[in-house]
Specification:
This protein is an alpha/beta fold. The protein has one domain: P-loop containing nucleotide triphosphate hydrolases (Rossmann fold), CATH 3.40.50. The chain has eight helices and five strands; from the N terminus they run βαβααβααβααβα. It has a five-stranded parallel β-sheet, with helices on both faces.
């Protein structure tokens, strides 16, 4: 017989996503969560944005050549996502696994929207995707995010800083403007899409404790309360 309060993965699996601007710490937090669930002995899979073996090499080449327009960038992202959704996400959910997504459809809404792509079009192109059971939105002021990135490397990447948009010739100023727009779009969809906000300025361990409480509530059958 199962133990009282034993963790379990429901039929249809558990789909968990993290969202936030570059530098918000979301990728670090989902890696910590992945290791936590593995230690629990749960069937868990981690997938990351723009990692399709079929599509990502093409995008990488186009990014190096700085050939991507806002619309082509959006289309390539959608193709990458669709490939991973069919090959990775759906099959594992069908097997009642926990699927962790380092960025999900909210990334398209926020980033493509910040590049001027029409929101209704973005929503339609991702309409095939199942909504995440839980989306954690790591919220940090854009200045904090910028500082974290520059402490780990010397400069921002071209598209990360939104330099393709002509916002500013200065990479730091362009980053602040572009990623600030990304954060505002996340804030606009946060309530409508039921995101759970995590204060990404808090110490890393405090953030991870909050993340684990949310996940454990789902696994114990209590949802996101």
């Amino acid at each position: 017989m199962p133990r009282p309060n034993a963790v379990h993965v429901k039929a249809g699996g558990l789909l968990v996503a993290v969202e936030g601007s570059d530098g918000s710490g979301k990728s670090t937090q989902i890696q910590l969560l992945y290791r936590y669930l593995l230690r629990k002995g749960l069937p868990v899979h981690l997938t990351t944005w723009n990692s399709s073996p079929s599509v990502h090499p093409l995008q990488r080449t186009a990014k190096r050549a700085r050939e991507l327009t806002p619309m082509t960038f959006s289309l390539v992202n959608a193709a990458d996502f669709a490939d991973r959704y069919e090959r990775e996400i759906q099959p594992r959910l069908a097997l009642r696994q926990v699927v962790l997504c380092d960025r999900y459809i909210g990334t398209a809404y926020a980033r493509d929207g910040a590049r001027g792509v029409e929101p209704g079009w973005i929503e339609r192109i991702y309409s095939f995707a199942r909504p995440a059971d839980l989306t954690l939105f790591f919220h940090a002021p854009v200045e904090v995010a910028a500082g974290r990135i520059l402490r780990s490397r010397q400069s921002f990447s071209y598209y990360e800083a939104g330099l393709d948009l002509g916002l500013s010739e200065d990479p730091t100023e362009s980053f602040l403007r572009f990623q600030g727009s990304v954060v505002r779009r996340y804030e606009e969809i946060e309530r409508r899409m039921g995101y759970v906000r995590i204060d990404a300025t808090r110490p890393m361990r405090e953030q991870q404790r909050a993340v684990r409480r949310r996940i454990d509530a789902f696994l114990l059958g209590g949802g996101a309360s």
